[in-house]
Design brief:
By secondary structure, the protein is an alpha/beta fold. It is built from 11 helices and 25 strands. The strands form 6 sheets. Strands 1, 2, 3, 4, 5, 6 and 18 form a 7-stranded mixed sheet that branches. A 5-stranded parallel sheet has the order 8-15-9-10-11, with helices on one face. The N and C termini lie far apart (62 Å).
Length: 422
């Protein structure tokens, strides 16, 4: 019966980084990395961008080359799904009836794409975008696809729409809310990206909802809207968020679930400042970990980002190597669409004012978010300097006059320094 001092369930960014940092910090115990997919650990963000576009082969999105894991004595257990946890016995059971004992368990499973619930949601030709296999299936179908309907105007949907438009497909993107990115950004950014996608030929529609996916010979042939309109297509991409993969931990008695987060977002598993769950010797990190975040005014949230995955992995590695640390990292994200690079720092949730710095018509500008006069976040489009310097304003919760924030003749670094010195 296998046993490891540290068993990491989930071989994405969070899990892989936990194993890497443990070894970097001199951890000498046995480490195993268990993942559902058959592949070596790889980057997720390029799936809806460079990998789908064919600009990067799979080998170029590996987190580390194949030999790295053997050299660090990290045992990879690919193609295996953890289905239950016995916290008292320190044991994980896998779908193939395997049993793995552990000293410490790090749960880094992320989540699965949230699926539609309407008729036709499971037809051939309907895709989520979460794994290499998801995108490989899309790529295999693309030669026979002319029309694509993308459901969901978040980053995954917008990125996929941009790539497929570049590949010459006719793309219709539909969003139930009145603007894209409504959950994560202010109206100036939403309207800018709507205009960009339309300028590139995307039929982008907001305020519309899906009734069902229509079928022909067992495959999707169109999306029927609630108003009765039919959108013919050969492929449907669904990008409406993820469901955290924490059922096994919750069944084992871990605190968590939907009650943790308001707004209907599945709550994941609750963790403390060291990413410990309520179960003994079990940590959770990454997309599935619901934590109190200082940049969300202490609210319990989940962050679906590489930054969060890496930083929480480092916190656990420090704790397990004798130097406990508390998670406190400014959130950041990015998105590439067409020739636009969006970089976000901070969390804009709950903002009460925005400042647009620069001119969206020039395709280089920032949206600065304020709450009670304090800078809480920035969205920077093709404006790297604002992104780098604006981090200081966010981490310092700076109060800066909105007129000054919008003055592009003054660097944000100068504003941050002035606030620090005052």
């Amino acid at each position: 019966m296998a046993r490891y001092d540290v068993l990491i369930v989930g071989a994405g960014h969070a899990g892989a980084q936990a194993a890497i940092v443990l070894r970097q910090r001199g951890y000498a115990g046995t480490i195993a990395l268990l993942g559902e997919e058959p592949d070596l650990p790889y980057e997720r963000p390029p799936l809806s961008k460079d990998y789908l576009a064919g600009d990067k082969p799979f080998e170029r999105i590996l987190l580390r080359p194949a030999g790295f894991w053997d050299e660090r004595a990290i045992t990879l257990l690919p193609g295996r799904q953890a289905v239950s946890v016995d916290a008292e016995a320190h044991r994980v059971v896998t779908a193939d009836d395997g049993c793995i004992h552990y000293g410490t368990l790090i749960w880094a499973t992320g989540g699965a794409p949230r699926r539609l619930t309407c008729a036709g949601h499971d037809l051939a030709g309907v895709h989520g975008v979460r794994t290499r296999a998801d995108v490989d299936r899309m790529i295999a179908e693309l030669p026979s696809v002319e029309r694509v309907v993308v459901i969901g105007g978040g980053y995954i949907g917008l990125e996929a729409a941009a790539v497929l438009t570049k590949l010459g497909k006719h793309v219709t993107l539909i969003e139930a809310q009145d603007r894209v990115l409504a959950r994560v950004a202010g109206e100036p950014l939403s309207r800018f990206y709507e205009a960009e996608h339309r300028a590139h030929g995307v039929d982008l529609r907001t305020g519309v909802a899906v009734a069902c996916i229509e079928e022909r010979e067992g495959a999707a042939c169109g999306v029927r809207l609630l108003d009765g309109e039919m959108l013919p297509c050969e492929m449907v991409i669904v990008g409406i968020g993820i469901v955290p993969a924490v059922a096994a931990l919750l069944a084992a008695g871990a605190e968590g679930g939907d009650r943790l987060i308001s707004g209907g977002s599945p709550g994941g598993v609750a963790v403390d400042a060291q990413c410990r769950t309520s179960l003994p010797d079990i940590f959770a990190i990454g997309d599935c970990a619901a934590h109190a975040n200082a940049f969300a005014e202490g609210r319990t949230i989940r962050l679906e980002s590489v930054q969060n995955a890496n930083d929480q992995a480092a916190v656990v590695a420090k704790t397990l190597t004798g130097t406990p640390d508390a998670y406190h990292a400014v959130p950041w994200f990015w998105s590439n669409q067409y020739d636009l690079k969006l970089q976000t720092v901070g969390l804009s949730t709950g903002y009460d004012a925005t400042v647009v710095r620069g001119d969206p018509a020039e395709r280089s500008f920032s949206v600065i978010y304020l709450k009670a006069g304090h800078v809480i976040a920035l969205d920077c489009v093709n404006r790297v300097r604002d992104y780098v310097q604006g981090r200081l304003l966010v981490t310092g919760s700076a109060r800066v006059d909105p007129v000054t924030l919008g003055d592009t003749s003054i660097d944000l670094k100068t504003m941050a320094t002035a606030v620090t010195d005052s």
